[in-house]
Design brief:
Length: 339
């Protein structure tokens, strides 16, 4: 049965097709931070608890994942695939949502968007270490420059947050840890999408994590709310929409596009994520009414320049013939294979 995302052969074989679906995924992900902010509320107007959102988004997406895998009659993952699925669970299903969910209740969504500007470079650095690539020295210098920019931005902005400098810096730290988790999930997902359909990669990851995410959702259900009627009365509609978006789009559907695009043209597609901080700040300004400071735009553009330089240097350096990096299997198409 072939029920996943499909395109006419003339379109799916076009050189721009991976970048087109990658750009759609970036737009989906750019809305994650402002929608998480809507779901969590703020320190002055809290909505869903951050830990509940982080677990519930995966638990709800897990329901969709189970239905999808049953519909396509997907085979069980091979033993060789399970370590990659576990990496996606720990980094993407659990690590990034937990780090981001707590942070965006404390700092503005636009501030968090700037911090995530290092995500493409972080992913490239992890790929260099994990998959055995050998970028030039300039790549690592660019990485250090980007990390320095993020440190300066976080430190200079922390004193202006309502929560205080210490709590703001702690939020930045959890965001950085979450970014490492996301990078782990990206590398593992791109690698695995070369061997199985991208829709099944994320779906199996969510199913693997489902017992834990459901249990954590029950444990972190907000105190004082004992029924859905009470939840509707106490939680604003915008918070419900935010939770629904991060569950359906950010945690599930977006990765169908992202992993498939990365598997087919990883270097060019990964560069598209450079647009994510700027898009996230624009969406935050429009959706949340946040006044994005000029400094945030300046740092976002500076990080953009550093990451572009780092990606160019990473691409320019060939992998040595003696490298023992794992051989990658042929790239799978975006469509689900018949079962």
């Amino acid at each position: 049965m072939d029920t996943s995302l499909q395109a006419p052969p003339s379109l799916s074989q076009h050189p721009w097709w991976p970048r087109a679906i990658g750009l759609m995924a970036v737009l989906v992900f750019a809305m994650t931070i402002p929608m998480t902010r809507l779901a969590n509320g703020s320190l002055t107007e809290p909505q869903w608890p951050p830990l509940f959102v982080a677990s519930a988004r995966a638990a709800l997406a897990g329901v969709l994942a189970v239905l999808h895998l049953l519909w396509v009659r997907a085979a069980w993952p091979a033993a060789a695939h399970r370590r990659w699925l576990l990496a996606i669970v720990l980094g993407g299903v659990m690590g990034f949502p937990l780090g981001m969910g707590w942070a965006v209740r404390i700092v503005p969504a636009s501030h968090a968007a700037v911090i995530t500007g290092l995500l493409p470079l972080c992913t490239a650095a992890l790929s260099a270490w994990w998959l055995g690539h050998r970028p030039r020295l300039g790549f690592w210098l660019a990485s250090a420059a980007g990390a320095g920019l993020m440190a300066v931005f976080a430190w200079s902005s922390s004193a202006h947050h309502v929560a205080g400098a210490g709590l703001s810096l702690a939020a930045d730290g959890t965001m950085l840890l979450g970014m490492v988790g996301a990078s782990v999930a990206y590398v593992a997902g791109a690698r695995l999408s070369r061997e199985m359909p991208s829709s099944q990669v994320m779906s199996w990851s969510l199913v693997l994590a489902w017992p834990v995410t459901v249990a954590l959702s029950v444990y972190w259900w907000p105190q004082g709310i004992h029924s859905l009627a009470q939840a509707r009365a106490q939680i604003q509609p915008a918070a419900w929409w935010g939770l629904a978006y991060v569950a359906v789009c950010s945690t599930w559907l977006g990765f169908f596009l992202w992993y498939a695009a990365l598997a087919r043209d990883a270097m060019r597609v990964s560069q598209l994520q450079l647009l994510q901080p700027l898009l996230a700040m624009l969406i935050s300004a429009a959706l949340l009414g946040e006044a994005v400071p000029v400094k945030a735009w300046v740092f976002a553009l500076a990080v953009l320049a550093v990451v572009v330089l780092g990606q160019r240097l990473a691409r320019a350096s060939p992998v040595p013939a003696a490298s023992h990096s794992p051989a990658l299997p042929p790239v799978r198409h975006l469509e689900t294979s018949p079962t």
